[in-house]
Write a structure and sequence with these properties.
The protein is 0% helix and 52% strand.
């Protein structure tokens, strides 16, 4: 099993920045990639970004490219999501997830482990 704990959410004005963290524990050697998803009220859970746990390759949804950066610190078993130039439409609960699947999984069902989520609210 892998346990994931997110932190770093909060309230920020449009144009501001936040950094989310996700600390992994347990059988972390089984992780192939880590991802961030978000879910706004009444919406489906949406892929935001992913990073290969070993190689470090990344992928992003088009709406956050150039504004968000995903990174990892393997020594700390932690993944980060740096969010800049935030917009009101970025408001959602952000979830960290881990997968044992290869490739570049972007669908929620492709992920094996989930954190509890952290709220990000961007005011206009």
């Amino acid at each position: 099993q892998v346990q994931l704990v997110e932190s770093g959410g909060g309230l920020v004005q449009a144009g501001g920045s936040l950094r989310l963290s996700c600390a992994a524990s347990g059988r972390t050697f089984s992780i192939y990639a880590m991802g961030w998803f978000r879910q706004a009220p009444g919406q489906e859970r949406e892929f935001v970004a992913l990073i290969n746990w070993r190689g470090g390759s990344t992928a992003y949804v088009d709406s956050v490219k150039g504004r968000f950066t995903i990174s990892r610190d393997n020594a700390k078993n932690t993944v980060y999501l740096q969010m800049n130039s935030l917009k009101p439409e970025d408001t959602a609960v952000y979830y960290c997830a881990a997968t044992r699947r290869g490739g570049a999984p972007t669908r929620p069902y492709e992920y094996d482990y989930w954190g509890q989520g952290t709220q990000v609210t961007v005011s206009s």
